[in-house]
Each structure stands twice: as C-alpha cells, then as structure tokens.
Amino acid sequence: MESSEITGSGGGKETTPGETVYHLSLREKDVAGARYALLPGDPARVETIASAPPFKHCRQLAWKREFRTWLGYLGETPVLITSTGIGGPSTSIAVEELARLGVSTFIRVGTTGAIQPHIGVGDVVVTTGAVRLDGASTHYAPLEYPAVADPRVVEALLSAARELDIPHHVGITCSSDTFYPGQERRDGFREYIPRRFRGMTEEWRRMNVLNYEMEAATLLTMCGVLGLRGGCVTGVVDRHAEGGRITPEALQKAEANAIAVAVRAMGSLLAG
Ligand code: URA
After folding, report:
1. 148 φ/ψ angles, rounded to the nearest 5 degrees
2. What is the pLDDT of residues 101-159, one digit of tens each?
C-alpha cells in the first residue's frame, strides 16, 4: 500500500454504534460501508444523478434541510450522493458528517460560470486548485494553505471527459462565498460592488483562473487538512464576459455533462 493511499475516514473520529449524524440524519448502518460520495449542491440533482446509468439499486436514505442523500451502487460498490446546499458552510457540514460515516473520496459535481472567454456554455471544468474566496475554509487552515484537488481524482475526471468526448478545461477555479458581489455580478438588487471585488473578474482572468463557483475551495481545503481525497467537476451555465445570464437550456446541458463526467470518473476510481 502506498503511504498516500486513503484507507478510511482519514484517521478521524467515526460515529459510535447507532449514532445519527445531526444534519445528514444518517447512521453508519444506513450507508452500507460507502467510502465514496458525489456531492451536488442542489437536492434536486441528487435524484438525477442516482438515475444516471450505470447506477443501480438507488434509494433515498434521508432528506433534512438542504442535505438530501441517496445510496446507489456502481457495480458492487456503494456510493453516496449527498447534496451540500450552496456555499462553504453547508458544504463543510456535509463533508464532516460523511467523513465520520466513513467516506474518504469526494467528488463535487456542480455548475459554474466561465471567466475565460474561450470556455463555452455546456463545457465542463475540472478543478486542480481553488482560489479561497470563501470563509469556511479559513476555519480549517490559514489562507496560505492551498485548496488542491487529489491528482488521482483529477486524472479520473479528465479521462472521463475525454472518453465521453465532452469539451473540458482543467485548471484553477475561484470559489466565492457570494454569487453576486464576490463574482462581480451586475444583476443583483443593486449594481453596487464593494471596492474589494471591483475589477477582480478581469484580474482572475489575467491570472488564468477559469471559472467561478461556490464550494470547491471549502471541499478541497478540508480534504487536504483532514486526509481525504477530493475533486470537483462543474458544468458551465454562463459566461461572465457576457453578463452571466443563465438560461434553462444552458443549465440542462451543463448539468448533464458534469454528471456524466463525475459518474464515470467515480466508476473508474472505485475500480482501482
Ligand atoms: N455558479 C456560480 O457560482 N456562478 C455562476 O456564474 C454560475 C454558477
């Protein structure tokens, strides 16, 4: 066994027999020994993922607040699909509680806005590292600590995108705590953007940051700190250079592509 291999819950505290983790409302015996989890933000997307081939024997285990969990099988291996809700704070709760239940590999599957002009709607972005424009990750490590994806998860996501012939991009993501000011959007209640964020989209673009989303930095920082494996694939729903308008067609295409890549990558990771 390589010393870097993930063996379980990252050496942390597991649940006591019969214990129900508070927010996810799950017990260890519910999760059938699952070590792998897919993490969409949206509870509605949990069922969509569970319905994607080749998942089988899928069923809902719990749904409390934004945290909805289904259990399904890829081959013989149990995989959890748990929604994180939007943003770092709720993502940190989902990851903490899943890790206590024994999950050690996490793939976020979500939606994103393109910063780079060459990235198209419906393309997917595989995140190698995230700009920590969130707050939750600072509760785990100082800002000097990098939010990086596990290289095996990155490779599995890229191979999946290639095999499925889905246009994809790989690189750095900016994870913002806010959808509006932190992503310099002009379509909020007021056009006001605090000085700290004014011009930042252009700065990120020049620094080769690919995209905006809201959860990767928290997930990847936590995985680094806690000894877990994390990765992130997101489907592009809008392009910030064009004002960031999201259409239902764009959402549908982006979600379908990101889910296809995430499920295939998960299948190859658990196959070894
Ligand atoms: N999610 C984000 O956080 N930003 C976008 O522009 C689209 C999806």
Report:
1. -120, 145
2. 999 999 999 999 999 999 999 999 999 999 999 999 999 999 999 999 999 999 999 99
Which residue type sits at 140? Answer: Y
**Which CATH number is 20-271 given?**
3.40.50.1580
Q: Any idea which residue has 């995209």 for tokens? A: 211
pLDDT-based confidence at residue 4 (cuts at 50, 70, 90): very low
Q: Is 218's C-beta closer than 6 angstroms to any atom of ligand 1?
A: no
Q: Which of 109, 176, 211, 237 to mutate to test the pocket of ligand 1 (most atoms within 8 A of CB)?
A: 237
Per-residue pLDDT of 191-213, as tens digits, reads 899 999 999 999 999 999 999 99
- CA distance linking residue 150 with residue 216, whole number of Å: 12
| Atom in ligand 1 nearest the alpha carbon of residue 111 | 8
Burial of 56 (0-12, 13-18, 19+ CB in 10 A): exposed
Higher pLDDT, 9 or 119: 119
Distance CA 130, CA 172 (A): 6
Å from CA of 17 to ligand 1 middle: 40
Q: Residue 259 has which token pair?
A: 């889910």
- CA distance linking residue 79 with residue 68, whole number of Å: 14
Domain boundaries along the sequence of the chain: 20-271
Helix axes 151-164, 248-270, angle to 10 degrees: 120
Pocket test for ligand 1, best of 178, 204, 212 (most atoms within 8 A of CB): 212
Contact 187, 244 (CB under 8 A): yes
pLDDT of residue 186 exceeding 90: no
pTM above 0.85, yes or no: yes
What per-residue confidence (pLDDT) applies to 261? Answer: 98
